[in-house]
UniProtKB/TrEMBL annotation:
PROSITE patterns in UniProt: B12_BINDING, RADICAL_SAM
Designated name of the protein: B12-binding domain-containing radical SAM protein
InterPro entries: BchE-like (IPR051198), Cobalamin-bd (IPR006158), Elp3/MiaA/NifB-like_rSAM (IPR006638), Methyltransferase_Class_B (IPR034466), rSAM (IPR007197), rSAM_horseshoe (IPR023404), rSAM_sf (IPR058240)
Domain spans labelled Radical SAM core: 205-436
Residues annotated as domain B12-binding: 13-153
Classification of source organism: Bacteria, Pseudomonadati, Pseudomonadota, Alphaproteobacteria, Rhodospirillales
Gene Ontology molecular-function annotations: 4 iron, 4 sulfur cluster binding; catalytic activity; cobalamin binding; metal ion binding
Length: 496
């Protein structure tokens, strides 16, 4: 075998108890795209999704050793665009288990985290090579080198050891023609029955969470939000898209061959170009597949009422919208758009009037946040009372502008000496350590976030909303969800 693409197990450490039932089990989008890229070039490829198979780190290592591929690629992304860093510890445990097995094959790690910190990753981690960039061209050239047909120094985007020195080659070009070079994911290399949607994605029928796929329709983002690291593998902000023909072709395949009905579009910004969105929606409306789709949008990209109406008719039952903060000053501090609270309220109301459910996203602990502004944000969330809400702590993810600011100002970060390490960047982990602000400690921010989650989902207005829209079983499900709390290390320290 030429290449084995591995999704290491991280869910239990990243999500704690949420991993067992509430969180999604996502198909590995990047692995699927890279696999198809390599298959088109007549490479022998396999995928090992240890997350979906429920493998331990040791079992994953054993499977890798048994496969004995010429190149084993650790594809370290996560279920969210900014989730690569928190998955690094799980990958490391597999790599360490491989070492204990005496495995001496070539290994490469890639992902947003590795692209953001390639030299540090090579210095601190046990992989043979590190990829700085999106991956396909680097993997292909490295494979040629391993077959004796090219110099290591000529592999674009590669970091490697040269004696005691660490070397980094020039960047690989990003793929310009997505339709031609990454025409689809290699779904046939996966057991699609293993995947499931988020609980809220199927509030209309909690028993239908299977039949699930994640479909990328664009790469990158043209915006420059200070807290986001999504563009780290791509070398800067920008957007590349697949054509509507390619997107609809993938959906046809998912529906007709695999019986998929629930689809996530993980693009950082799907709802952006109204003409493109309308074209995609028109084709889905014509097919009438009865899909249940969710995608990301922004307050300032939902101004076309015809487009929004088409989204609803096409099966986009949920849109994730970044509100982030109720404070204009706090939003401005991380360059989060030029919209105010009135725009947020009006846009969300207009979208919901079409029948589309909203998953609103909020961030506590942004650099200019105070206890007062965080309370304003929670109050806005309670008043909007959307069908779902995600509450996050501000994190200075490697690859984001905020990470550079935090390093320059000497703010405490999870990867500092004595800190919890990369797992501290996980919002739901035991070791979560968010960014402090000028007036709040990291623990104050974390405590506020956890309390906000419980206040929102236990709010009688919210419970009445979900009972009215989705039925008493969903209301009971939400009550059960809020009954279990996340364990946090600092709580255990206080009670010790």
């Amino acid at each position: 075998m030429d290449v084995l693409l591995v999704t290491p197990p991280s869910r239990l450490q990243v999500y704690q108890g949420l991993a067992s039932d509430l969180a999604a089990i996502e198909p590995p989008v990047w692995s699927g795209l890279i696999a198809q890229f390599l298959l088109l070039r007549r490479c022998e490829v396999a995928m090992l999704d240890a997350e979906a198979e429920g493998l331990t780190h040791e079992q994953t290592a054993t499977r890798i050793a048994e496969a004995d591929a010429r190149l084993t690629v650790f594809v370290v992304y996560g279920q969210q665009p900014s989730a690569s860093t928190q998955c690094m510890p799980g990958a490391r445990k597999v790599a360490d288990a491989l070492t204990r097995l005496g495995f001496d094959g070539a290994t490469l790690v890639l992902g947003t985290h590795a692209s953001a910190l390639p030299e540090r990753t090579l210095r601190e981690e046990p992989y043979t090579y590190v990829c700085a960039g999106e991956g396909p061209h680097t993997i292909l050239a490295l494979l040629e080198h391993l077959k004796g047909r090219g110099a290591l120094a000529a592999v674009p985007g590669l970091w490697y050891r040269d004696g005691d020195a660490l070397r980094g080659n020039t960047s690989a070009p990003v793929i310009a023609d997505l339709d031609a070079e990454l025409p689809r994911q290699a779904w046939e290399l996966l057991d699609m029955s293993r995947y499931r949607a988020h609980n809220w994605h199927c509030f209309h029928d909690l028993g239908s969470r299977g039949s699930y796929a994640s479909l990328q329709t664009s790469l990158g983002c043209p915006f420059r939000c200070g807290f986001c690291c999504i563009n780290a593998p791509f070398g800067g902000s920008g957007l590349r898209v697949w054509s509507p023909d390619t997107i609809i072709g993938q959906i046809d395949l998912l529906v007709e061959r695999y019986g998929i009905r629930n689809i996530k579009i993980p693009d950082e910004m799907f709802v952006l170009n109204p003409r493109r969105i309308k074209d995609i929606c028109d084709r889905l409306i014509e097919r009438n597949y009865g899909l249940n789709i969710w995608a990301y949008a922004r307050v300032d990209t939902l101004n076309d009422p015809v487009m929004v109406a088409k989204l609803g008719r096409a099966g986009f039952n949920w849109l994730g919208i970044g509100v982030e903060s109720a404070s204009d000053h706090v939003r401005d501090g991380v360059t989060k758009g030029r919209f105010g609270n009135a725009d947020i309220v009006e846009t969300i109301a207009r979208v919901r009037d079409t029948g589309i459910n909203i998953g609103a996203n909020y961030i506590f602990g942004l650099p200019d946040d105070t206890l007062g502004t965080m309370r304003q944000t929670l109050d806005l969330a309670l008043s909007l009372n959307t069908e779902w809400a995600n509450f996050y702590c501000a994190m200075a993810y490697p690859g984001s502008p905020l990470y550079q600011v935090a390093r320059a100002k000497g703010w405490a970060l999870p990867d500092d000496p004595g800190g919890p390490g990369w797992i501290g960047y996980s919002q739901h982990s035991y070791d979560c350590l968010p960014l402090p602000t000028e007036t709040l400690s990291a623990i104050q921010v974390l405590d506020f976030r956890d309390a906000a989650f419980n206040e929102y989902f236990a709010n009688p207005d919210y419970l009445r909303l979900v009972e009215r829209k989705f039925g008493p079983a969903v209301m009971a499900h939400v009550r059960e969800m809020t009954a279990s709390t996340l364990s946090r290390r600092h709580h255990d320290r206080k009670s010790a």
